[in-house]
Amino acid sequence: MFTLITAASTSKAYSLKNSLGSEPVLLGDYAALPAVFINSGKLIQLPDPAGQSYVHQFLALCLDRNIDKIWPLDSREQDLLLNSAQLFAEYGITIIINDQL
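The structure assignment produced for this chain is given below.
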């Protein structure tokens, strides 16, 4: 199982990744990412939170990628995912928010 950290284009994402130690982590972002990083598997493209089916696309991505924990660092993502936390929990996926970051 993997932990997903969003906002991969920010330094906060890399700081969080480093603080998690040896836990298997994926970094992703809905902002445009260099194709070379996506193709190499170092980053994953996330759905845009402005999309109408954002939550369902995000859930499908988590299930496809064996993600069981999400650290949404973008405030829009946080709001949408927290509002759907029960749905994600039904699939064994935890949304983690830490205002201390």
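Interim note for the steering committee: Helices lie at 11-19, 35-40, 54-64, 75-83, 85-90. The beta strands are 2-5, 25-29, 43-45, 67-71, 94-95.
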